[in-house]
């Protein structure tokens, strides 16, 4: 039979117990008198050696060590006895509770308590002398108290392990929340950056192309004017975003986020940018005057109109681009942007393809709906139009403005 490798501390305990028992035997110190047993004195070394060997198994085979140790300590009572054997047995009781199975940890303290009571009552009834109570005390010191101490230590260890596990789970959940928060913030800032800069850069690209392709001083001057205006506005938007990202002190306040009140200026800017492409722009705002919407809804509606106008300037055929905003006094805000739909050889300015995704994300963050795609045109108009429609609930506990 192959025994598990013992722990270093168990080897030291076994060696100390064995050497201590041999020293007591050599000094003639025994727990019982020689006249009380007919066995030779050297027989007491057998339980001592067995118990010392069992100390090597106190962690790896605690239940087996306790069972065999019980037999050894009972056999020690028929010899001259050794205090070292009794002390090592007490350690085996303690180890069986601490390192044994949960069932053993529950049963051993109960069993040792019952044995202690039985020994006390039994010897008291036999000797009919109060001195017999000392036998119960010794039994409790050897069996019950080590078992109770082991139960207390085990409970503390299990509580510590449970607390450590909860701490690890809490740390893991916190890390997951942090990762999700970082990802959400990155996505939000990506939308803001795209919506703020894409329109200005598209206007710059379109008018710079016109300035390079047309050899006309007036056209070139007009294109350069538009380029400068969009550059200045783009830089202002970038500064606002950087101001929001910066950890501001008490004397620095970030600029206010754009609102639906700026739709007139936004459409006018698109009219200036897309006028040379044969596009006309119309704004119809059916909201009640003076209606104030939650900041996240204002920002989302503004950005959806801004991105829709940018896409129309880059992709739409010549014709009318129509912006319609309604609601605001009820439960939702409706934003619709339509533009002529046709097959162009390519966009007037390059794009990243993130505009539609960003608009859909903005609507989803407010528990709204978003749809974009070609639909049948109105009577008397083009056969197909490109329509962007968003319905945003008027809530104020969603994504904060930025």
What does the model show?
This protein is of the alpha+beta class and 402 residues long. It is 60% helix and 11% strand. It contains 10 helices and 5 strands, in the order H-H-H-H-H-H-H-H-E-H-E-E-H-E-E. It has a 5-stranded mixed sheet. It is rod-shaped, with a radius of gyration of 44 Å. The chain starts with 7 loop residues before the first helix and ends in a 9-residue tail after the last strand. Residues 248-255 have low confidence and may be disordered.
Tell me briefly what this model is.
With about 400 residues, the protein is of the alpha+beta class. About 60% of the residues lie in helices and about 10% in strands.
Helix content: 55-70%
What is the H/E string? Answer: HHHHHHHHEHEEHEE
Number of strands: 5
Mean pLDDT: 81
Number of helical stretches of at least 4 residues: 10
Residue windows where pLDDT falls under 50 for at least 5 positions: 248-255
Largest sheet: 5 strands, mixed
What is the terminal-to-terminal distance? 73 Å
The whole-angstrom Rg is 44 Å
How much of the polypeptide forms β-strand, as a percent range?
Answer: 5-15%
Order of strands side by side in the largest beta sheet? 1-2-3-5-4
Structural class of the helix and strand makeup?
Answer: alpha+beta
Shape: rod-shaped
């Amino acid at each position: 039979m192959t025994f598990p490798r013992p722990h270093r501390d168990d080897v030291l305990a076994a060696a100390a117990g064995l050497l201590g028992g041999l020293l007591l035997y050599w000094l003639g110190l025994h727990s019982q008198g020689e006249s009380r047993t007919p066995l030779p004195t050297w027989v007491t070394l057998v339980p001592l050696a067995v118990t010392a060997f069992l100390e090597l198994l106190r962690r790896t085979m605690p239940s087996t060590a306790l069972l065999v140790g019980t037999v050894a300590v009972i056999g020690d009572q028929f010899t001259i006895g050794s205090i070292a054997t009794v002390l090592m047995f007490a350690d085996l009781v303690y180890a069986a509770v601490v390192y044994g199975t949960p069932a053993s940890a529950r049963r051993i303290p109960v069993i040792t308590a019952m044995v202690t009571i039985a020994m006390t009552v039994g010897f008291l009834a036999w000797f009919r002398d109060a001195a017999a109570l000392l036998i119960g005390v010794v039994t409790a010191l050897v069996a019950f108290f080590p078992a109770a101490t082991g139960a207390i230590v085990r409970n503390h260890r299990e509580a510590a392990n449970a607390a450590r596990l909860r701490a690890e789970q809490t740390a893991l959940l916190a890390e997951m929340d942090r990762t999700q928060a970082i990802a959400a913030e990155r996505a939000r800032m990506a939308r803001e950056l795209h919506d703020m800069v894409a329109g200005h850069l598209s206007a710059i690209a379109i008018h710079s192309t016109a300035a390079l392709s047309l050899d006309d001083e007036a056209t070139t001057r007009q294109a350069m004017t538009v380029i400068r205006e969009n550059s200045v506005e783009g830089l202002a938007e970038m500064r606002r975003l950087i101001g929001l990202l910066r950890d501001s002190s008490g004397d620095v306040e970030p600029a206010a986020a754009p609102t639906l009140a700026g739709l007139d200026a936004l459409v006018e800017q698109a009219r200036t940018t897309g006028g040379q492409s044969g596009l006309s722009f119309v704004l119809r705002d059916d909201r009640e005057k003076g209606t104030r919407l939650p900041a996240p809804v204002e920002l989302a509606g503004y950005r959806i109109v801004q991105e829709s106008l940018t896409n129309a300037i880059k992709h739409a055929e010549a014709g009318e681009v129509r912006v319609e905003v309604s609601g605001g006094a009820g439960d939702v805000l409706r934003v619709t942007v339509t533009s002529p739909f046709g097959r162009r050889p390519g966009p007037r300015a390059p794009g990243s393809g993130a505009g539609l995704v960003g608009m859909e994300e903005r609507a989803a963050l407010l528990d709204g709906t978003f749809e974009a795609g070609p639909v049948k045109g109105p009577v008397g108009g083009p056969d197909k139009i490109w329509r962007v429609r968003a319905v945003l609930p008027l809530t104020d506990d969603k994504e904060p403005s930025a």
